Amino acid sequence: MGACSSCLKSRKSQAYEPLLLENEREAVADLLQYLENRTTTNFFTGSPLSALTTLSFSDNIDLQRSAALAFAEITEKEVRQVGRDTLDPLLFLLSSHDTDVQRAASAALGNLAVNVENKLLIVKLGGLEPLIRQMLSPNIEVQCNAVGCVTNLATHDENKTKIARSGALIPLVRLARSKDMRVQRNATGALLNMTHSDENRQQLVSAGAVPVLVNLLTSPDTDVQYYCTTALSNIAVDSYNRRKLAATEPKLVQSLVVLMDSPSLKVQCQAALALRNLASDDKYQIDIVKADGLTPLLRLLCSTYLPLILSAAACVRNVSIHPQNESPIIEAGFLNPLVDLLSFEENEEVQCHAISTLRNLAASSEKNKLQIVQAGAVQKIKDLVMHVPMNVQSEMTACIAVLALSEELKPRLLEMGICEVLIPLTNSSSIEVQGNSAAALGNLTSKDSHIGDEDYTAFNDVWDKPEGGMHAYLHRFLTSSDLTFQHIAVWTIVQLLESRDSELTRKIRESSLLLPSIQELAVSQPSSPNTYSRTQSDSLSEEGDGTGQEEISLLAKKIIQFMNGEFDFDTDTRADSVVVGSQGGGRIAAGRASAASSYSRRIMHQLPSDGDTELRKSVRDALASSDDDA
Questions:
Q1: Which of 420, 543, 548, 421 is nearest to 482 (CA)?
Q2: Dist CA 99 CA 138 (whole Å)
Q3: CA distance readout (Å), 185 to 76, 190, 282, 438, 570
Q4: Are 203 and 241 spatial neighbours (Cβ–Cβ below 8 Å)?
Q5: pLDDT per residue as tens digits for the range 347-357
Q6: Are 425 and 437 in contact (CB under 8 A)?
Q7: For residue 533, what pLDDT band results from cuts at 50, 70 and 90?
Q8: What's the CA gap between 593 and 187, in Å, rounded?
Q9: By percentage, how much of the chain surpasses pLDDT 90?
Q10: CA-to-CA distance for 597 and 609, rounded, in angstroms?
């Protein structure tokens, strides 16, 4: 927040008391002369500052008033870094018992507090204590200027904790309820600036700020709406606070939904971001849809203003996490705008949110998967995926992996030539892109035992191309140091062999690259780390590490037995009974995208991401299998 709203009013000069000390008379005469030439005078050093200092420390209240008013008028027109010699007389004036002196001194201090270095020095010199006393003043103008000064001081990170520990929060919360809009605006601005650390947010909650902020969402003042919406958005970063909000503020979601239709663009944006942070929890994901939040979100998503597009895209991504919201989002008309945003080259974040939302919408329903493909998502992904940033590539390949779970859509995806872009991406410099692309290919190769013969011509067509084709990709993964990549490769080969496609079987049988690697895996011992799994999941159990190697070895042995005519997948066992995908028979799937990481804002400040903890389930989780099923 910038300079505070000043409540300083002009005051007619008063006659001084007749008895003045000689140095005071000289200071008055000097100051009058300097004020005549104020455009060329530097009042923050030398004789001008000396004259102001003399008047400030005078026992004569009228001289103090003149000094305070001069400081206020001078700093209104010029703000620069000052030293202790300027701040000491101002802080002395701030401790005065005279309302006029308090009002002018707090205004001057608030003006100087716009400067970064001054913010730190004012707090260092003990400025908070007299400012808190002035916030408790019965005089509205004194309250206004004191709160405004604290608001400016609170924009510096080094001051925030000191302000929170100084006892300022309870007076700020009280003044946020002031009937004077200037005081209310400054107080809510100060509360906003105090919401940028975990500790301060908890202290604000303890000071009773939340119900005040929620009630002020209906304020007629746009600035107050903005400050309160943004402060609540920051408070909602913390899971504990979200639970408390859910238990105590039943009107919060509806108020924020209403504010997405505010005449102010900045309020619309912050309302969507506040809902986005709340939607990190499943309760709020449902509540936003029930409150008819999808209608304004769609309007924001289709706007031409980047902050609105970004905030809406982030919010709907989180709302789409809940399975119950998949169909309502599609029915509300989000598919085409989301597909259009895949090519939103101006902002990578928007692209990531859009593709993650589409992946979420595809997670639970065959009907939804079909609608997403019909909306042109796969064709758009195919056209873009080789040229978008790596984070977007990762999301796009994960989305294809989910869509490829559909038996109905597999022929369509293969006919669209999706393998032609997935195969090169298995050699990406990104572990996630490699794994997601391979997972998608694996899902495309799998065969439903309840469906008749399927056409595997598409895999024959890409066996050696592009970039070495399926052949080179499988060899890279078989010889990878990553257990999960090895697992994907042997599992995919099993799927290809299960197809009973004579051409594929011949190519695998005659490969001088694949068979030696498969034979080696059949006898190998557990030793390799699961790099991809660890990038995809928060944790990987030691038990999972051990059984992974056993699964790889078992599948590799079955491939060799099949090649030697000692094993028949149709009569002995199918791969599906060895590898049970978490999202459907024997599929490798990227999981549901998690909540976009909550972030705290002053205006557009983003805290470091704590990561999307459920962004993609590990392939090991998706391949959750056991030898007992064989």
A1: 548
A2: 10
A3: 19, 9, 33, 55, 74
A4: no
A5: 999 999 999 99
A6: yes
A7: low
A8: 38
A9: 72
A10: 6
- The DSSP call for residue 609 is P
Cα→Cα distances 29→19, 26, 440, 575, Å: 15, 5, 85, 98
pLDDT digits (tens, 9 = 90+) for 297-352: 999 999 999 999 999 999 999 999 999 999 999 999 999 999 999 999 999 999 99
- The structure's pTM equals 0.81
**First-to-final CA distance of the chain:** 65
Rounded Cα distance, 136 and 139, in Å: 9
Does residue 375 contact residue 335 with C-beta atoms inside 8 Å? yes
Q: Which of 627, 622, 534, 629 is nearest to 582 (CA)?
A: 622
Return d(Cα 71, Cα 60) in angstroms, integer: 17
CB-CB neighbours of 283 under 10 Å: 15
Q: What share of the chain is helix, strand, coil (3-state, %, to 5)?
A: 65, 0, 35
- Locate tokens 């947010």: which residue? 201
Identify residue 145 by its one-letter amino acid code. N
- 499/505 Cα distance (integer angstroms): 9
pLDDT of residue 257: 98
* Two tokens, residue 573: 């066992």
What are the CA-CA distances from residue 221 to residues 5, 195, 493 (Å)? 14, 21, 65
Among 67, 149, 66, 68, which Cα is nearest to 115's? 149
Show the tokens assigned to 106.
């707090």
Task: Round to whole Å and give the CA distance between 302 and 613.
Answer: 28
Under 8 Å CB-to-CB from 77, ≥6 apart: which residues? 38
Residue 346 to residue 305: CA distance in whole angstroms: 11
- The amino acid at 462: V
- Do you know the residue count of the chain? 630
* Among candidate residues 375, 305, 323, 317, the one with its CA nearest the CA of residue 351: 317
pLDDT tier for residue 364 given thresholds of 50, 70 and 90 = confident
Q: Taking the alpha carbons of 432, 433, 438, 443 in that order, is the dihedral positive or negative?
A: positive
State how far the alpha carbon of 238 is from the alpha carbons of 58, 229, 241, 579, 584, in Å.
Answer: 51, 15, 5, 38, 34
DSSP secondary-structure letter at 323?
A: G
* Interacting residues of 480 by C-beta distance below 8 A, sequence separation 6+: 486, 489, 528
CA distance 56 to 418: 78
Which residue type does 224 have?
A: V
Distance CA 494, CA 144 (A): 74
Tokens of 40: 């060329």
Residues 74, 8 contacting (CB under 8 angstroms): no
pLDDT digits (tens, 9 = 90+) for 458-491: 999 999 999 999 999 999 999 999 999 999 999 9
Average pLDDT over residues 29-41: 82
Q: Cα torsion for 113, 114, 118, 120, to the nearest 10°?
A: 80
Say how far apart CA 28 and CA 23 lie, in whole Å: 9
Which of these, 595, 593, 609, 602, lies nearest to 233 by C-alpha position?
A: 602
Closest-CA residue to 382 (of 403, 361, 407) = 403
- Structural contact between residues 478 and 521, judged by C-beta atoms closer than 8 angstroms: yes
Q: Encoding tokens for residue 165?
A: 């520990």
Residue 184 to residue 55: CA distance in whole angstroms: 33
